[in-house]
Design a protein that fits this description.
Keywords: Membrane, Transmembrane, Transmembrane helix. There is one protein chain. The chain is mainly α. It folds into two domains: 52 residues, no CATH class; 95 residues, no CATH class. Helix content is 74%, strand content 0%. The protein has seven helices and no strands.
């Protein structure tokens, strides 16, 4: 999710900065703030991926996708609620990308479902490459073996 937010923010920022905020606000918001909010989370996620205990394994991909789907459905509901009840898009760039009814439906679906799902799939592939998934049975076996080794040393 953080990789998606980072990529989306910086893509929109560099292609059409005015959709993020007007240039005059840049005097009030320092550049490091954007990096803190939209780049640092990606670094934290990668550090977590690399430094987390090797014995831990992620949730099954189906569970991760289910949780993400529930989150995104709620988020899309709030986004469309603001648009149609208040007449304002939650994010200005959505109004830019969603000029017609077809684009109004397809842009948020693409931005909130398809692209994040691709990122989840990539994250699981990276995780599988960096460390093999450890099953509960393997953890128990490893624990018993290391306990026996400790007992023999004593």
């Amino acid at each position: 999710m953080s990789l998606y937010v980072c990529n989306t923010f910086w893509y929109v920022y560099y292609t059409n900065r005015e959709l993020i905020y007007p240039k005059m606000i840049e005097k009030l918001v320092p550049a490091w703030y954007n990096h803190t909010m939209h780049t640092l989370p990606v670094l934290i996620v990668f550090l977590h991926l690399i430094l987390v205990e090797p014995e831990s394994s992620p949730l099954p991909m189906k569970t991760s996708l289910f949780i993400q789907t529930v989150f995104h459905v709620g988020y899309m509901f709030l986004t469309f609620h603001d648009r149609y009840m208040k007449g304002v898009w939650l994010y200005k760039f959505l109004g830019y990308y969603a000029e017609t009814w077809t684009r109004t439906l397809l842009a948020p679906i693409l931005l909130t479902f398809v692209i994040p799902y691709i990122y989840v799939w990539i994250a699981y592939r990276i995780n599988d490459e960096l460390r093999p998934t450890v099953t509960k049975a393997k953890r128990k076996t490893t624990g018993k073996v290391s306990a026996k080794i400790k007992n023999k040393k004593q």
